[in-house]
């Protein structure tokens, strides 16, 4: 059930209608949310109706143990059990074919068959689940004794496919509140976010992908260097509009049942450095990698600075591999890890840059950062390392022609660039204006939006890119 499909919005309306009449009853409200969560999973595969409750029940029991145990050794054992459980799910259900293929290539033996692959949203589920047990181990949160609340929070349906990765300890209190109310302003903002998200996805991201990006990355040798360069830039905006569009729909969906999810993007291509980029791009993943992985790696307290730089690289390589079982993601993570380490070393040697640089200096830093990010995106998008190197080779050919870059595509790409660099006050004003508009205006807009969804779905809607991870 794609978040850009009419089926999803019929489902969302049903959840909305069922939830609010019983929301004053804690148990009834949580039951509706939990049923919606598991129904959403079941639409993808019935196996999830066994997998997710089993894994969630184990972590819930571990959480109770972490809340009651004072013995450090027992607490470490409980945390290790949770980490092994979630990493075991990731490895067995998503990465095993990749590991077996790598083993086969190195050993020369035939690759063993592996049929238990259920990658849908498993990376997001495991990372979100681990926030609970790690927070309890660190005393950064308190365990819930409500089995229903925990199951509802860890599998909350708007976050299932592609986040935002939300700390379970912040979701549970929101789900357990019985005095929540959906104001007209909040409802209008939710609909605004959903509308903007669908516009980003259907009108920008899908158009760029279908009309240039996919063809260029599939058959790079058929295109000139300039066409490939345009496709790489187009992919940068396709990925942003696709993923931020999903996030907008997810946040808006959660708001319709009174839940606030964290922001995930903040104009990432305005970044003036790679660390700044990661403060703006996929913010919840950046925070997870920093809080739960980077600070947990050994050597950070050592006087030897090499561990600081090495751990940045290790963190980003693991972050790259989290996206999928492919060496292209490893290289993408390695590029960002090295860039973060080099930036940290440079700042350690020269000090932080001045807080208010000249406009030309800011523009130069943004341009250089964007170029590096786009270079790394080539490996992120490529189907293999060979495909990525073919793209780079064609870019270096120096051939110039734009026969495959249509005027309509340039218009859409230009609109995407302008929309991305739009000042935040403009987007805030448009959101506030829509939220405060009369009901019939919002209803008319929603009706037109549903018609557009029906049309796009009838002609074949493209899944959100990050639902693959």
Low-confidence stretches: none
The tally of strands reads 0
Span of the ends, CA to CA: 16 Å
Mean pLDDT: 88
Largest sheet properties: none
Helical residue percent band: over 70%
Number of helices: 18
Helix/strand-derived class? mainly alpha
Rg, nearest Å: 23 Å
Based on CA inertia axes, which overall geometry fits?
globular
Number of domains: 2
SSE pattern: HHHHHHHHHHHHHHHHHH
Roughly what fraction of the amino acids lie in strands? under 5%
Quaternary organisation? single chain
Short key terms for the protein model shown above:
18 helices; 469 residues
Please tell me about this protein's structure.
- This protein is mostly helical and 469 residues long.
- It has 2 domains: 24-179, no CATH class; 185-468, no CATH class.
- Helix content is 70%, strand content 0%.
- It has 18 helices and no strands.
Summarize the structure.
The chain is mostly helical. The protein has 18 helices and no strands.
Write the layout of secondary structure elements.
Elements: H1 6-22, H2 26-44, H3 48-68, H4 72-107, H5 122-137, H6 147-154, H7 168-176, H8 184-218, H9 225-255, H10 274-278, H11 283-293, H12 306-322, H13 327-350, H14 359-381, H15 385-395, H16 407-420, H17 424-435, H18 439-458
